[in-house]
């Protein structure tokens, strides 16, 4: 099977059936699929034949699959065989931070929990020398199970070909000062600011980034951020 024959109904690894095309960007396609063995939805990335970073993405996904923090998106499979490459990961349902902020500033307690959980999850990834490099509100999800998920560690950077001299610092600054107390004593998210991770041909929006949520924001180092979260309320 070649990448050109990938379409709804295609089965990968004899178990992952592609159903809905969620988004396409620069030769990478995100699908909602079904794991027919475990009867659960999964997210699948497939790639056009001329996508230039297939090996890097598959390698990053395999490394991310070894992460054990449940607050990081799980990677279930990653392969590059016979001209067809794919990455299978957890399908996450819930509201992204972008969605939550569309309704106004977050309550202090909820913002503090989200920030602290994300910081701890990133610290786990950093302990394994894996990084995100393009964190922003769309990559943080408050799930329907009332937990926090950080999407795209390692994989998103490989998709975009992002590099940086200090990946831990870039991740630590990636969400911007996440909780800024406004005049009404609620918390608001500051978008933008700081120096983004770069790639040689400059950054372009990541795959399936929400509208209006482009680019890399920044956040304090995770150990500082955890302290900030503990003091908010």
Task: Report the end-to-end length measured between terminal Cα atoms.
Answer: 55 Å
Total beta strands: 11
Number of H- or I-type helical stretches = 6
**Principal-axis shape:** globular
Strand residues, percent = 15-25%
CATH topology of the largest domain: Transferase(Phosphotransferase), domain 1
Largest sheet strand order: 1-2-3-4-6-5
Q: How large, in whole angstroms, is the Cα Rg?
A: 18 Å
Averaged pLDDT:
78
The secondary-structure class comes to alpha+beta
Please report the first level of CATH classification, the CATH class of the largest domain. Answer: Mainly Alpha
Order of helices and strands: EEEEHEEEHHEEHHEEH
Poorly predicted runs are: 178-196, 198-233
Number of domains: 2
Percent of residues in helices comes to 25-40%
CATH architecture label name of the largest domain: Orthogonal Bundle
Give a short summary of the structure.
The chain has 233 residues and is α+β, with helices and mostly antiparallel strands. The chain has helices spanning 54-64, 97-102, 108-127, 155-160, 167-172, 222-231, and strands spanning 11-12, 16-25, 28-35, 40-47, 75-81, 84-90, 94-96, 140-143, 148-150, 180-181, 187-188.
Could you walk me through the main structural features you see in this protein, from its secondary elements to its overall organization?
The chain folds into 2 domains: 3-90, Phosphorylase Kinase, domain 1, CATH 3.30.200.20; 94-231, Transferase(Phosphotransferase), domain 1. The chain has 6 helices and 11 strands. The chain has helices at 54-64, 97-102, 108-127, 155-160, 167-172, 222-231; strands at residues 11-12, 16-25, 28-35, 40-47, 75-81, 84-90, 94-96, 140-143, 148-150, 180-181, 187-188. The strands form 3 sheets. A 6-stranded antiparallel beta sheet has the order 1-2-3-4-6-5, covered by helices on one side. It has a 3-stranded antiparallel beta sheet with strand order 7-8-9. A two-stranded antiparallel ribbon has the order 10-11. β5 and β6 (84-90) form a beta hairpin. α3 (108-127) packs antiparallel against α6 (222-231). The model is unreliable at 178-196 and 198-233 (pLDDT under 50).
């Amino acid at each position: 099977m070649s990448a050109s024959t990938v379409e709804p109904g295609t089965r990968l690894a004899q178990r992952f059936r592609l159903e809905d095309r969620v988004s396409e960007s620069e030769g990478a396609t995100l699908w909602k699929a079904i794991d027919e063995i475990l009867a659960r939805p999964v997210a699948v990335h497939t790639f056009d034949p001329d996508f230039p970073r297939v090996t890097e993405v598959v390698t990053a996904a395999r490394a991310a699959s070894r992460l054990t923090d449940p607050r990081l998106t799980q990677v279930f499979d990653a392969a590059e065989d016979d001209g067809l490459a794919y990455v299978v990961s957890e399908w996450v349902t819930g509201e992204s931070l972008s969605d939550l902020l569309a309704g106004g500033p977050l309550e202090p307690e909820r913002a503090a929990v989200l920030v602290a959980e994300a910081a701890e999850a990133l610290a786990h990834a950093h302990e394994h020398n894996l990084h995100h490099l393009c964190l922003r509100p769309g990559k943080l999800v408050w799930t329907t199970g009332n937990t926090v998920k950080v999407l795209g560690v390692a994989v998103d950077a490989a998709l975009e070909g992002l590099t940086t001299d200090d990946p831990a610092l870039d991740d630590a600054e990636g969400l911007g000062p996440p909780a800024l107390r406004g005049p009404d004593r609620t918390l608001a998210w500051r978008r933008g600011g700081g120096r983004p991770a770069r790639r040689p041909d400059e950054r372009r929006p990541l795959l399936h980034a929400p509208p209006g949520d482009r680019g890399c924001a920044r956040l304090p180092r995770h150990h500082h951020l955890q302290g900030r979260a503990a003091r908010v309320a």
